[in-house]
Amino acid sequence: MTAAGFVPPTVVLDLDRTLIYSRAAAGAVSQDALRCVEVYRDNPQSFMTVPAMGLLERLTTRATVVPCTTRTVEQYRRVRLPLPMPRYAVAANGGTLLCDGEPDAQWHRRVRDRLRRDSAPLSEVAALFSADAGSAWMHATRLADDLFCYAVVDVAALPDDRLPRWRDAVAARGWNLSRQGRKVYLMPDGLTKMNAVDEILDRIGGSRERLFAAGDGALDIPVLAAAAGAIRPRHGELEELGWSAPSVAVTDSDGASAAEELLTWLTQQVETDSVGNNGTDSVGDIETDSVGDIETDSVGDTMDVSAHHDHPGAHAGERHYT
């Protein structure tokens, strides 16, 4: 809350294939326009365009920006976004609430109590993947923060009956299935990004009426549908499903260019909202190719979540299983 009692609007941003992209997923953008925001095993992993970085910086001066991802805490901490450490972030599809970069213990207990009560154990559901562990199309299986599991598959070789079979099997156990690219997620029904977002809104005095969001996958639907305004890129799982909702816009572009478009749209929504709710910002034109004074090789002002890797409160992250 500001000194005048004004609570800025809240913007919830999915990360992969919404805000950040692999080179392969970036699409028809110049490689020179991409800047690395994640390194994994000494290899550049994820990127943003320079205009998108400038737009994100602008957005963070006008709203409470909440990174919101299905990534584990460890995976999330590899990402370096061009913004200060967020006050709140959501990892593990809502399973972990990060406060100033650290997992919130109270939320941790509440989530696990709910999952124990409402869903079958993770080990029981993960066994569905284990049964196919020797198949050529099953490249890897993972347990994520001991909350859910996912498999990395060869989509072209995946048998036609597998997804429907897994979906039916987990539905009877209080779980659901989502496929995003090569990854097939099995997720407890009670583990949602929206639950964590509602908790954040309660803590900051925000509301769904002033919530804006962006995401590309089925796991983003609860947040997109609950927001006063939301936008999705013209690619990804939701595009494949043909999913739409009255309050959800769709970008004209796909790939990394979609991030520029959706950040422009979100900033316009936020600036209009702030004026209507007695904020101090004025509505103006947004130049998507203007990035101010971003130094492409400088990370001094970026969010460096990697600095918290060794904190004893962090989860162990993903692990292999068979």
UniProtKB/TrEMBL annotation:
Composition-biased stretches (Basic and acidic residues): 306-322
Protein name (database record): Hydroxymethylpyrimidine pyrophosphatase
Top-level taxon of origin: Bacteria
Organism (species): Williamsia sterculiae
Alphabetical list of InterPro entries matching this protein: HAD-like_sf, HAD_sf
Region (Disordered): 273-322
Comp. bias intervals (Acidic residues): 284-298
